[in-house]
Amino acid sequence: MDFDFADEQVELRQAVSRWLEREYGQQRRRRTMADGGWDSQAWRSFSELGLCGLPIGEAHGGMGMGAIEAMIVMEEFGRHAVPEPLGHAWLGAQLIQRCAPAHMASAWLPRIAAGEAWVALAHQERGHRHVIDRCTAKADRDGEGRFLISGQKDLIPAGDKAQALIVPAMLDGAQALFLVSLPQAAVRMEVYRTVDGRGAATATLRQAEAQCLSADVGALEWGIGLGIAHLCAEAVGLMEHAMALTIAHLNTRQQFGRPLAEFQVLRHRVADMKMEIELSRSMSYWASLGLEAEAPARRLALSQAKYQLSRSMKWVGQQAVQLHGAIGLTDEYGLSDYVRRLYQLEYTFGDGPHHLAILSEAQFADA
């Protein structure tokens, strides 16, 4: 199988990398995170670069690119620890593009591609962990045939900045996806920070007006799979930069009159980090390529990737901190942004044990 990137994909990576190197350094990242993890000017720049509409079809003003291009961009965003939730914005846009009626897609996709709006997936509920087929939010129809949603959804990335939420809710005994436009009085947002310093929100809906996005029971699972593929690519970029910071520290810091990089035991640990990152990269490719497979094979490929990435993210982050010594534990040093983000991603869209259970069930079924 040929894993070489096409010329256009290489140019896309170079363009995104150059812009991030020039415009999105540590100072801007720290300033953005201090302001809640959202920079409106940066989001406009993403739109001007075409990134907001990267997976959106050209008919709706997007670039019409696929999973591999999204993976390339997310790696670069991970390498610079960009706090704005571009991957989550793509997830919402692609759910609309794949599942929504034509009039809904025409109303939202051009706005998303232009950077004027973004739609957040709000699927997590307390007490359900990472299981997506359980849902306590409920949808009712009023006398005029409109849908009204009641329930609570947690850990919505930058939820207070979104112009709409995609909300799973029970309708006539089955789970469906609904689009809830914001702001509206029936939706109350509680904003807080996650462990990686980014903003998140809990949305409490009390008879909030909504439109039915899709009654397909597999739509949410497909969306979560898309989020896993984006997450894996971001994690590869994060781990690569954490290792680069570690190598620079070992080459600079001296002990007993010699750079730390000359001590063989430390070189071996860096080599182990490199091997773990390469394994993660392979599984990230596997996840992005698996998005086009049939549901059972797709589910298996994404759980395999997320399980491996969950292990690698934690291990590489720990090694980076330990090889830095005391400075690796400080928030003032840039490494902390990467390690905290890796820990947050480990528990996003299902942690390691959750996906290991899925893989175990699949093996028992085969047996």
UniProtKB/TrEMBL annotation:
Assigned keywords, A-Z: FAD, Flavoprotein, Oxidoreductase
The protein's required cofactors: FAD
Domain Acyl-CoA dehydrogenase/oxidase C-terminal residues, every copy: 229-351
Superkingdom, taxonomy of origin: Bacteria
Keyword flag Flavoprotein: yes
Keyword Hydrolase: no
Domain Acyl-CoA dehydrogenase/oxidase N-terminal: 7-116
Protein name: Alkylation response protein AidB-like acyl-CoA dehydrogenase
Taxonomic placement: Bacteria, Pseudomonadati, Pseudomonadota, Betaproteobacteria, Burkholderiales
Family, as annotated: Belongs to the acyl-CoA dehydrogenase family.
Gene3D superfamilies reported in the protein's UniProt record: Acyl-CoA dehydrogenase/oxidase, N-terminal domain, Butyryl-CoA Dehydrogenase, subunit A, domain 2, Butyryl-CoA Dehydrogenase, subunit A, domain 3
Pfam families: Acyl-CoA_dh_1 (PF00441), Acyl-CoA_dh_N (PF02771)
Species this chain originates from: Hydrogenophaga laconesensis
